[in-house]
Amino acid sequence: MEFTKKGKLLKIEGTQPNIGEMVPNFFVRNKNDETISLENCQGEITLISVVPDIDTRVCAVQTKAFNKNVSELEGINLITISTNTKDEQENWCAGEGIDMEMFRDVDLSFGKMYGIAIPELNVLARSVFIIDATGKLIYKEVVSEMSDEPNYDKAIESAKAVR
Questions:
Q1: Rounded CA gap, 124 and 48, in Å?
Q2: Most CB within 10 Å of its CB: which of 4, 28, 44, 61?
Q3: Digit-coded pLDDT (tens) for 5-33
């Protein structure tokens, strides 16, 4: 898959899981510096919203949209991941008046496991993954142009369909 930032071709590292496959376990850190993994979400439908940089307009729009939509649904866990620092994530939440937990992938390990790491920029490709309660991937969207938004409606409908 080709991925671009304002038309410039970028190299993505890793291999993306396929729909219907069990996804690899991952490890990201929360605001308390605790390591969280996919195992922490077992038994729940999990929507993973990945943003390249929370301090940009499109990433902020994506994060707010999924936070609002998923908070209105029962039985769906939301994980938002970026490579931003803990302070950047906390400052963004405080500045936007949003109470949510964000996770960081500072070493791009999640990104490489899910085939969305962009080492030259030290960011992750904008993407959405939905994992069912057993750990199987039921939906994915990796947005090919960094400045484009994901298809929110399709992602939410896919999550609702497996509840």
A1: 12
A2: 28
A3: 988 999 999 999 999 999 999 999 998 99
Q: By C-alpha distance, which of 83, 100, 98 is closest to 28?
A: 83
User: What are the pLDDT digits (tens) for 86-102?
Assistant: 999 999 999 999 989 89
* Tokens at 56, concatenated: 């940009």
Read off the tokens for 67. 């936070």
Q: Where are the domains of the chain?
A: 7-161
Distance CA 20, CA 57 (A): 32
- The candidate with the shortest Cα–Cα distance to 36, out of 133, 99, 107, 105, is 105
Choose among 40, 13, 3, 46: nearest CA to 139: 46
Residues 6 or more apart from 105 whose CB is under 8 A from it? 28, 81, 82, 83, 111, 124
Q: Which two tokens stand for residue 156?
A: 């939410």
C-beta pairs of 67-70 under 8 Å, 24+ apart in sequence: 67/98, 67/100, 69/152, 69/156, 70/156, 70/159
Q: Active-site residue numbers?
A: 59
Dist. CA 98–CA 95, nearest whole Å: 8
Q: How far is it, in rounded angstroms, from Cα 158 to Cα 155?
A: 5
